[in-house]
User: What shape does this take?
Amino acid sequence: MLAQLGAILAAVRSAVETIFGLRFPTLAGMAVTALALGGCMPTTAPLAGADPADPGARVAGVGYRSTIAPFASRRPTAPSSWREQNDRVAPAPKSDQ
Assistant: This one.
């Protein structure tokens, strides 16, 4: 199978060199470059709404939201008793009644 593929590629290369007078790698490189640059072309699509370049076009209002709104300072404090800290965050004791 690979031998047959090699023979086909050799025949194509020979025909390309004969017709265009160029070496096959040069032509292949030009084709790859054209395809790669073709992918960089912007797509043109019709606008669905108002033209964005129109300064008189209506737009939605702009609202302000702080990016640090839930911020709380975490400055170091003086050391306190670990037992008091544990008592503050511990669940309430259950009553057996």
Summary: The two ends are 88 Å apart (CA to CA).
